[in-house]
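Extended Data, panel c. Modelled sequence:
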Amino acid sequence: MRKIVSYTSEQLRSMPSKTNWGRPIPSDEEIDAANALDPEVAGIDDEWIENAIVTQPNKKQRVYAAYDAYVIDYFKQQGRGYQTRMNAVLKAYVDAQLAKQSRP
């Protein structure tokens, strides 16, 4: 367990800043190159963005769930955020089912 450290406002003001405000702002090309290497961005292109539907996040509820090992492995292989991606897939499925129900 980590020890909690407290500082006074005077101590905080006397500490050197660790923020690098002088760093150069990356160009669009540099951002695109970084995004190409980021598994979180894979598959998100201009067409995907134009078709995306922005929604407000719902309140999360914790549950215990058991999934097949290969399903977990698949999402984990894509890197950090696998549980968020799993939730997104489930939400897309539920939204599609609800859309079918509301059709005349």
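Residues 7 and 13 are 10 Å apart (CA to CA). This feature is highlighted in the accompanying rendering.
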